[in-house]
Amino acid sequence: MIKVFLRDKKLMHGKRGLYLDFYPPIIHPETQKQTRREHLRLYVFEKPKAETEKEHNKETRMLAENIRAQRQLEFQSGIYGFVSAQNKKKDFLGYFQKLAESKLQGSKSNYDNWLSVLKYLKEFTNEVCRFGDVSERFCLDFKDFLLKRETISQNTASIYFDKFKVAVRSAFDDKLLFDNPAKRIKSIKPTETQREFLTLDELQKLAVTPFQYEDLRRASLFSVLTGLRYSDIEKLVWTEIQHSREQGFFIRFRQKKTKDTETLPISENAYELLGEPGKADEKVFKDLKYWQCAYLDDWTTNAGIDRKITFHSFRHTFATLQLTLGSDIYTVSKMLGHKNLQTTQIYAKVIDEKKREAANKIKLLKL
Fold first, then answer.
1. Spatial separation of the C-alpha atoms in residues 52 and 159, rounded to whole Å
2. Which residue, among 167, 185, 2, has the nearest Cα to 78 in the 3D structure?
3. For the CA atoms of 153, 159, 164, 165, what is the dihedral angle to 10 degrees?
4. 239 found inside a domain
5. Residue 192 in domain
6. Do residues 211 and 332 share a domain?
7. Which residues contact 192 (CB under 8 A, 6 or more apart)?
8. Of the candidates 29, 61, 81, which is a domain's last residue?
9. d(CA 72, CA 17)
């Protein structure tokens, strides 16, 4: 094990220079030569007289000891020589952009979020950010920057800052950072959002309303009947649609978001929305495109629905209607693929609020 000692040597004008002494010798990451010394470019007064000189000595030796302890940790972690001065000068924004590009094969919304974080990082840093700049103070300031942007909601800021923290952790894992400063910073807590969903009456009207994008229409109604996310419906292939005499129709698939393998029973009504079966590896909704979701307003408006309904609202509709019609929360949670029952309880809270609204609608003028 390499040991690191703090030493000093005599300089001119009554000062002593501080340096680190390595034993046994090491290969210095910058010079690539064997050495036992690292000069810290710090000095102390050999015979301090004034209080200011004594204070200077105390603070400087404390700083030098912190550097010594850090070097010792680097040797123990086996990363000395990787997080060098050369790495500190490398472009963090370029690294972040490559990470963002690696998300291109995933969901479009996730990829778009990474690109948005990159855009705000460039704005925050004036498009110049090296790995040496990524400190705990830098992370805190970027968090504050996101929270103060009027164009970013708190929930969006929460998503963006979590992506940033993933990137910093990735850089640490790749030995481009000596430490992961973001791990000590709390994520931005999201606020509880209004979850739009359709009533049973609205759903019936929507089901009989024509829509120019037929695959999107069928996929939306399929989501209402199964609770599946867009990402799982979009990648659904015919080999995942199965049937048995005992279980009826069901889907065996891997959730794109959680990577968990699921077996989900579906109704005959839901199966009818799939259309004529195709080849085993063929997509069920082969003409479904994410950009088409921008036109959902046309469909819902024609059905007489005046609220903003997104594709994810259909998943909310499934959960809310299931609980309203008497399904127990544990079963609904499993069908949604939630790992935590508390996530599903949000829908139960919505139903309780609706019950309270209904109870307050009947009032007597006088008692």
1. 48
2. 2
3. 120
4. yes
5. no
6. yes
7. 346
8. 81
9. 20
Sheet holding 34-45, edge to edge: 3-10, 15-27, 34-45
List CB contacts of 271: < 8 A, sequence separation 6 or more. 241, 249
CATH of the domain at 287: 1.10.443.10
* 241 beta partners: 251
Closest alpha carbon to 162 in 111, 114, 106, 125: 114
Q: Does 269 map to a domain?
A: yes
Residues 95 and 46 in one domain: no
Sheet of 248-254: strand order equals 241-244, 248-254, 261-265
The answer on 349 and 206 residing in a single domain is yes
Counting the structural domains of the chain, the total is 3
Do 135 and 176 sit in the same domain of this protein? yes
| Tens digit of each residue's pLDDT, the chain (367 residues) | 788 999 999 998 899 999 999 988 877 656 667 889 888 889 999 999 999 999 999 999 999 999 898 888 777 766 555 456 667 788 999 999 999 999 887 777 788 999 999 999 999 999 999 998 999 999 999 999 999 998 898 989 999 999 999 999 999 888 788 778 898 899 998 876 667 889 899 999 999 999 999 999 999 999 999 999 998 899 999 999 998 888 889 898 777 766 778 788 899 999 999 999 999 999 999 999 999 999 999 999 999 999 999 999 999 999 989 888 888 888 888 888 887 787 788 787 777 766 666 667 666 666 5
Q: Show Cβ contacts of residue 265 under 8 Å, excluding neighbours closer than 6 positions.
A: 247, 248, 249, 250
Q: What distances in angstroms separate CA 284 from CA 8, 26, 98, 222, one per listed residue?
A: 73, 61, 32, 11
Tokens of 114: 């990474």
Looking at the fold, whether 51 and 130 belong to one and the same domain comes out as no
Q: Residue 28: which domain range?
A: 3-81
CA 340 – CA 86 distance, rounded (Å): 44
Please report whether residue 108 resides in a domain: yes
Tokens of 116: 């948005």
